[in-house]
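In response to a reviewer's request, we include the raw inputs and outputs for one of the modeled complexes. The two entities were modeled together in a single run.
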Amino acid sequence: MADVALTHGPVADKRRGEGLTAATLITPATLFVAFCLLAPLVVLFRYSLNEFIPAKKMMVEAVTVANYIRFFTDPYYTSILATTVRVAVMVTAICLVLGFPLAYVVARTQSRFKHLLIISIILPLFVGNAVRAAGWMTIFGSKGAVNATLMGLGLIDKPLEIMFTEKAVIIGIIAVNLPFMVLTLQSVIEGIDRAVEEAAFSLGAPPGTMFRRVLWPLALPGILAGTILTFILAMNAYATPFLLGGPLFKMMAPLVYNQFTQQANWPFGGAIAFILMTVTLLLTVAANLIFQRRAAR
Amino acid sequence: MADLSLNGLSKHYGDFYAVREVSLTIADGEFLVLLGPSGCGKTTTLRMVAGFIEPSAGHVRLAGQDVTLLPPWKRNAGMVFQSYALFPHMTVAQNVAFGLEMRKLPRADIERRVEEALALVRLGGYGGRLPRQLSGGQQQRVALARALAIRPDVLLLDEPLSNLDAKLRQEVRVEIRELQRQLGLTTVMVTHDQEEALTMADRLVVMNEGSVRQVGSQRDLYERPADRFVAGFVGRTTFLAGTVEAPGRFRSDGGLALACAGGSPGRAALSLRPERIEIGLQPRSGLDNSLSGTVEFVSYLGALIDIHVRLSPSDRLVVQIANREGGFTPEVGQPVHVGWSASAGQVFNE
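The model returned the following structure tokens for the whole complex.
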């Protein structure tokens, strides 16, 4: 029996050692998330319950939901929230419609240039949002490339109003988000056996039916992931709405920034930040539930 | 069920011909096997019949209708894929019902035919399961049931057994063949496994480099191979390189003078089936060729024994004998006599 105990001892020690190694490895990331993400959120949430005295530009310690009430009772702010949700939904929908065929082609191509195709999809992400938005400004402006070309060709006689409109912002955010959608969908479509599509065809399903009954449900996890990613990015877009939307077009992220820096109103800024976060989360969860219910049918 | 004919079917990608002028007629209820090494064009041919690949030239006629330009969903062809290609998000019953729903059958008919098809492949009661809950062999049978449920004009099998283990493969082989006979299904199967091809087919098509090399029964291919490729691909054979000096006279590169059947003067290969050669310690009389040699290698296969015999520095022959009680037991290094009649060998001119 002594022998058995002796042979078991070191093994058990080794096990404990592995557990310790694992703990050591995950600790930095856990601490980072705790201190750099959760802690500021807690502090911000506490601020959002404070009072603000505009005359002195001063925050006063309190526990009140006044900031939240102010947001939801003022149509100026609720319309900004509505605009943000509308833009995010449109961007996400258009990204899905544009991204799916592209992702499908990339996933299914036999070409040896496939990696080049993927790089060219990621390439736009190498340019920062602000730089890209500045680029868009030169194209969309009333004397920009688009209008100059169309007017030069005689197709229009007065410049199209693209710049500083919701359209410009939507186009701009789509350009940022499309790669995320395409890459997410592509990796999921690649995991679907091509023969499954062919099986549907051979059983009499035309392409549209095959897509609806086979490809779409099988790609659903990727569609969901891509949609959530795109939606969150669009809800929180800052540089693009700020630069392409102009001074009159408002979305939530620039509004938060404005409250903190221009108005120095930390309680209200904190409240808006939390409203943005909560709405994003609720809509994401709701979409998730709807998708999953439909998939389960 | 119906007949199928391919007429001058070709598929080329630039200069490369995947399939070159394939013409075949498959009778109603016939089981035809396309056999060949990988890349020989057999799968491309099958996919052109299914409609997944558009031919560069030629025609496909199915049940008296030219379907060459019809998309797969407008042809009534049931296909079983190598990977089975079951819909992973649908139950077994939903998989089998899919083709029937596409045909817009009434709900009651669909249910009845799904049950029939599942009973046919002995999977009655498995309708509610998901494909991933089944074994490989069961998944294969669901794929078969799904293809049969639509009552196809032709059943297409693309290496249907290659993902099964050896033992199961032998069972499924017989099962598919019996089902095919019972239902009178016109069937085209693609395989690279010659044993599979030989046991299942009514008629075989040997393909190589995109072309049909020979069409015939098992016996035709084995006894009267059309060319050197078919002789080497179907069954085993030893090729002796040499020259035909005159019809009936073959001289190997190692200097052996051999009697053969026919052949025209020039470079040629003499094909000798291992089991058609006599071997013993004493020369046997009455054979056209009788030679002495040395045993170089023996493989003991249980029922059979393979003996590699060195006849000359450049000629080596494989001889196969049945492992009979009290029969010849070869040993490496042993001097032996081998012999065969002229008609046992086949000459292929180069």
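As requested, we also summarize the result in words. Residues 1-7 of chain A have pLDDT under 50 and may be disordered. The longest strand of chain A covers residues 51-53.
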